[in-house]
Amino acid sequence: MKRWHKTLMVAIFAGVCAGTLPALAVTDFERGNDLYAKGQYRAAVDAYVDAICATPKSYIPHYQLGNTYMKLGRLQEAQTEYEMCLEMYPDAKTKANTRKALAYITGSPRGNAAVSPSAEDNAVRLDQDLASAAEKMLQADNKRIEQKRQAIEKAGEKQSEQIKANVKTEIEQLRAVAPAYRIDYEKNDRVGYVPVEVERALSERAEANAKKAIEMANEKAKNLPESNAADTADGLRSQIYNRGNSNVRLSPVGTNVYVRNYQTGGGKVADTGNGTK
Q: Cα separations (Å) of 35 from 18, 44, 46, 74, 195?
């Protein structure tokens, strides 16, 4: 690597320390800085990505991730992170250093592979990211819904068994206070006499209620609301290309399934966080 490139990267890295730092996921961010200082750039990438997930509206992790990608020679990814950093209105010094890095990337001999991605390229990438995130959310939702469904059905079965047990207790209580008795030859004992038709009626009522408990539980389990992850993602994906009369569309920069950035012809106009969770 050229000496001036190393000097540039040192200046860029130093710039973040001199800037005004917003609130960060300190543990992940400091872990990334420590790994970066030790030259463990691949591990630092993971740490900075964790910091971004924890604080998606902070530009600092994007800036440091861009620096790390530069160290790894992954210029395309570095450019993306630097551009996202600029979209988040960094402090003056970080902005200047970021622009220097972008100038290096686009002007380097290897810059042919690192040209600024077109709006269409960014839109396609966002579309793919949203589809992938929606699939993961759908799997997690379906697992949670299935667990809840099984719990409801199990509760219905337990209630059914309890109803059957309760009627047996009720019949035994009637026998205990019955004015007449009969001989139970199997047990060789005297037991209270409850008319057969009374026992039958109680048992039939209990059986019907036990069956109803299971049916109601199964119906409740069947009608649990399905996951809306796919609809949420599809709604967002439709906004990537459909500008509508207002010319507003979803910005590919800084947007994910949890955070939405919108832009109109000239740039970003709105930012809404955690609106789809």
A: 20, 5, 10, 17, 83
